Amino acid sequence: MSIAAARTGTWITSAAKNIILNPVLTGPLLWLLTKAPVGYRSSFIDILGPLMNTANSTRFVNHLKIAFALGIIRGLNWAFNLWALAKWSTKKTNWVWNEEIAIVTGGCRGIGMLIVDGLVTRGVKVVILDVSDLPARFQSHKQIMYFQCDITKESTVMEVAMNVKDSLGTPTVLVNNAGICGNKTILDTSEEYLHRIFDVNILAHFYTVKAFLPDMLKARKGHIVTIASGAGFITVANMVDYCATKAAALSFHEGLGQELKHRYCVPEVLTTCVHPHWTKTPMLNAFEDSLIATKQFILKPETTADAVVKQIISGKSGQLIIPEAFSLASALRGLPHWLQEGFRDSLGKSVV
What we know:
This protein is α/β, with parallel strands linked by helices and 352 residues long. Helix content is 52%, strand content 11%. β1, α5 and β2 form a beta-alpha-beta unit. The longest helix has 32 residues, at 54-85. One of its GO terms (molecular function) is all-trans-retinol dehydrogenase (NADP+) activity. It is a multi-pass membrane protein.
């Protein structure tokens, strides 16, 4: 998505959401024009002046009725989405943030490091699992515990999980954030790297959930956050391996939600999947120059991290597409093929 398209989409989305499809605004306006006492109605029509001649008045009122109806439908859709994401449950979990423990994989840099910042600011104790060294500013921090952990080894994850429970307590939040990305064609991808990217980007999610979910089920309390990507919706050249792992991450999130609802009957354990657009992190280094040259929109990592922390603190399940203007990407595969290819081509040219 280009910078201009992203900004235009953001403006249109904001205008539609906050003004055009806001029944709090369109409802009273419609009442003033059609149902208010004659004196109020006439005064209001006089204020609008030439916009409200006979022809324009009828057209404007009809458009207003449509906007009001669509706003009501949008509100109901939003409410049903929240209910569905809550696994059709109205039960609420009591979160006391200065007593909660969060696991963040890949928390030593990029988005993960900023998520750690946001959580500790709100009083959450955070355990970082990473192969990178702990940043100096996190060392000796009273709310942060660090384990140098290769999350691609299930036995290592299980051992660390036991150590965390013994030394700190039972985690209630798990953020599967760690990920890697390269810039290779299918033919240039080595077997070793292919195993590595799938191990880190998706198989590790199975290991961490197997390590920490059982205690969440017992407590009927938890929140598992999957950091996926917009690449899970659109596959482009030179990063097929990465896109495949992120599509798998979305499937993992959806399947986990189904098992929590139908197999374990514990809707109190929340799930969130996050799909950021291109984000300025160390992972983007291989593509950044070409993205800038083609004027692609690049997110600041703070934008994604802040949205993740806000979602966790809300105590609700969710699916976040960042920026919101990119939300149509989730419907891409339902579009005509010529449109699908157009979207893929516009992104693919920026990374080849």
